[in-house]
Write a structure and sequence with these properties.
By secondary structure, this protein is of the alpha+beta class. It is 33% helix and 32% strand. It is found in: Cell envelope.
Length: 403
Amino acid sequence: MKIKNVLFVAAVCVLAALTSCGGSKKGGLPDFGDDEFAVATIGTSSAALQTTYPATIKGIQDVEVRPKVSGFITKVFVHEGQTVSAGQALFSIDSETYQAAVRSAAAAVNTAKAQANTAKLTYQNNKKLYDSKIIGEYELSTAANSYATAKAQVAQAEAALASAREQLAWCTVTSPSAGVVGSLPFKVGALVSASGQALTTVSNISTMEVFFSLSESQILSMSKTNGSVQAAIAAFPAVKLQLADGSIYNHPGKVVKMSGVIDATSGSISLIAHFANPEKLLKSGGAGSIVVPNDHNSAIVIPQEACSQIQDKIFVYIVTKDNKVKYSEIKVNPQDDGKNYIVTSGLHVGDRIVLKGITKLTDGQQIKPITLERYNQKIAEAAKLAESQDNAHAFATAMGGKK
């Protein structure tokens, strides 16, 4: 809107300058009065507007793969971009230390079992002596407690063995889920640990989550129209995804959820749309644009350059029967394509509005309506005349310099 308004003002200024330098209507100047404005009569039409929003693409599940034990990588079983299944081996970490720990724990189990057998025999023997009244209850209880302690030590040793075996198993790092392997920053020989950088990321890209944002006012308007946020999400139309190369992804998407927090920096709210990805064309971390259709039958559609906005209110200049303009507020659909508005209230079929040059108007001003075609024709005539005048001036200057 601003560019076209500047063009109009510039053209008028050129005409004024030419007139002051000796131009006249006889010279072909178009009659572009200050009170002439392009005006259109409101009608209805089928509107199929599309609004685009910047978007980021992620797999429905992006899982960082981290080792549970420390050590040197001895083998990398996969390559970047490879599709893997849950539980598939990805890396091997040097296991010699952990194998030794398993052997030590197994030996401790055997020792504990032997001690438990000895304690059992002692208890059984003391039980017979007690039954024969050779020893007292204290000696029997002591033997029983020693046997119980020995059995507990066996359980403790077996738990340590299980832990050692588990750590040995962790030397083979497996995929936590099915998906596609991301970057592999670590190679064979690299030292890794549980507290360090992730070895890679496995992304489940069977379905993609595409994140985009709407303004708080748009969300509020949609929620009020549909009764609730949940109803607004359910009523959200199927969306399209414009890829980085400008093409449209061949599977439609569905908005499934909305963030419950407003971004304090941008004042926007994030929405998530799901897209099927059977061809694995979409990759986690990619970018694109969400295209939201806005189809209406018998809608009043007006260009945004015919409107002015003050905070969250939108105004137009309505032309009355006596050709005076009235600065009037209108309501529009919260979704727009950046060029046009769908008017929901404030305008009626048959109303006339000013299309161009609204920054020069004031409420109640008398104007002379002209058609948009006539307006554009006068702009073209002014530009053409300005060009011819400039060329003539340059030619005269060049000729005047010759002796």
